[in-house]
Amino acid sequence: MSRATPAPSGARDQVARLLTLVPFLHHRDGVRLDEAARLLGTTSDQVLRDLKVLFMCGLPGGLPGDLIDVDLDAIQSEGGGVISEGVIRVENADYLAKPLKLTAVEASAIIVALRMLRDTSQGETRTLVARVLEKLEGAAATAPAAHVDVTPSPRDVQQVVVADRKRALDEAVAAGRQVRLTYYVPSRDEESERVVDPCGVVNHGVFSYLDAWCHRAEGERLFRLDRITKLDVLDTPTATDPRPPRDLSGGLFADVDGPDHVVATLRLGPEALWATEYYPVRDVRVADDGSAEVDLVVVDRRWVTRLLLRLAPYAEVVAPEDLAGSFRDSARETLQLYR
Fold first, then answer.
1. Half-sphere exposure of 86 toward its Cβ, with a 13 Å CA cutoff?
2. Cα angle at 66 between 63 and 71, to 5 degrees?
3. What does pTM read for this prediction?
């Protein structure tokens, strides 16, 4: 048995070993199990386990002619032991040794992703990605099908902008500099300018946030990076003591910060659930009929009233009662305009 140190046995490592082993076997006849183990830096036992997984893989359909055939009898004894000197024989896996062919859609998706990665990387990573991208674009241009002109979607462009802002903020944190930013506040549907002492950028869900001390609000605040419309790193040093950014693993709104903030509980129909993806929601409790009760952080009651009018008739206020009453009054006043 090979005396090599066992390699990690996670699924990712196993796939990497098999993608290395199968083409190697196609170009060499009579590879022994212990020789393959030395090549992969693992044990004969691990290679045998990998080949048993390969035995269950193949083309769609799952019929005997579709699956990869591994001669397990040559590398495993009747009692289940490993035959290290046994020769590995793999058949019906020729397609794994062929160059990968991409459809136009697949090539387009990879090119978009690589362009984003190139534009948001630095140093050696940027050089490597640019080299790979150049090869892929060249291959796409000379393929039988016409070269696909890849235009990034608005979301692609936004991700690049967010990455640029994160890089600037990271530099400001490292240098201990204040930042002036223009920020869109959805709860008031307006932009505001403020100077902050940045602490760091943190992620929660699919969004990135700047955790900072806001001199305008005189308190700690979180700013979603995709809502920062302008950002300038100032020459002035931060006025507060440096601290690490907050841990958001417990959620963004574990507590309602600010004396004017209130949590409103709304009942939303399925047609109005899109609002939970755009506004600061603390909790969503989905019912069997597809509706949901939502706890929404409210800073400006006029704003939430406008939101409820937009969501009507698929939204109603559960609590607090005074908010429910003001919404009913606004709804009646709005209806009077159409009479």
1. 19
2. 100
3. 0.41
Q: Do both 172 and 142 map to the same domain?
A: no
- In the sheet with 292-298, reading across from the earlier edge strand, the strands are 281-286, 292-298, 262-268, 315-319
The overall average pLDDT reported for the chain is 77
Domain membership of residue 37 as a residue range: 11-97
pLDDT tens track for 115-127:
887 777 766 667 7
The CA distances from residue 70 to 2, 36, 83, 231, in Å, are 20, 14, 14, 59
Contact 33, 40 (CB under 8 A): no
* Measured distance CA(50)–CA(52) in Å, rounded: 5
Domains identified in the chain, total number: 4
Is the residue at 254 inside a domain?
no
* Residue 191 DSSP SS3: strand
Same domain for 71 and 21, yes or no, is yes
pLDDT in tens, 60-108: 655 556 677 888 888 988 888 889 888 888 877 766 656 556 677 777 7
Residue 267 maps to which CATH number? 3.30.70
- Spans of the chain, pLDDT less than 50: 1-8, 146-153, 254-259
Coil, strand or helix at 183:
strand
Residues 272 and 314 in one domain: yes
Same domain, 17 and 69: yes
Nearest to 165 by CA among 196, 129, 197, 208: 208
Instruction: Walk across the sheet containing 190-204 and list its strands.
Output: 219-224, 207-214, 190-204, 177-185, 228-237
Same domain, residue pair 204 and 171? yes
